[in-house]
Amino acid sequence: MTSTPNPSAGPAAPVRRIRRLPDRETVDRFALHELLDAELVGHLAVVAGGVPVVVPMGYARVGEHVVLHGSTGGGFALRAASTRTPVAFAVTSLDGLVYARSLFDSSMNYRSATVQGVLEPVPDDEADAALLALSERLMPGRAAEVRGMRRKEVAATRVLRLALDDVVMKQRSGGPSEEPDDGEDHAAWAGVVPLVRRWAAPIASGLTPPGTPVPESVRALTTAQSPPATLDEASEPAA
Q1: Rounded to an integer, what is the distance from CA 101 to the centroid of its chain?
Q2: What are the sequence ranges of the domains in the chain?
Q3: Which fold has domain 7-178+186-198?
């Protein structure tokens, strides 16, 4: 599959292409932003000391970057940033299971993206805003309800980002592959079982006094019918 880069859709499509089922590849920038804004955890991969390492991490998309944070006390992510070692960051959403009339033809509905590049430290004058954006993505509104970060905590935290320049995205949607004359027994059920996720009722910590009201940030999260808003207007589709 080949595609012509759209200057209005962000950085050009990468040289790497999907070879297995290439028709499922997409270079739609809005679809990429929608996926990254809907998920909370990705997997960061790097080769450290000759050994492949993969670690799940919370993240946020801020504009055309994925923002992560690490400890200044160590960690392979910071070492990779300091040595400009190439990394990969993958995010996947499982949207449903596809039940066909054979196990071979059964599948999943999903959206997945892999970003490759070099981690870079967020400049000091942008680090506080990036860290707040990460907090607001994971726990919207919580920063205004709790104490601010102490100087020691700030000093122990390093904010990193990965540009969305080299991205491959693949997705599948819809029902099972079937035709009226495919020779299958159509009396056997086939279809899709969508996967729907939601937040359950909050559980207070052991040291929270009985009767303490559930804060607005938690109530908003557990009653939300859709993912939190994106962090900028770059995800909005063109009119």
Answers
A1: 32
A2: 7-178+186-198
A3: Pnp Oxidase; Chain A (2.30.110)
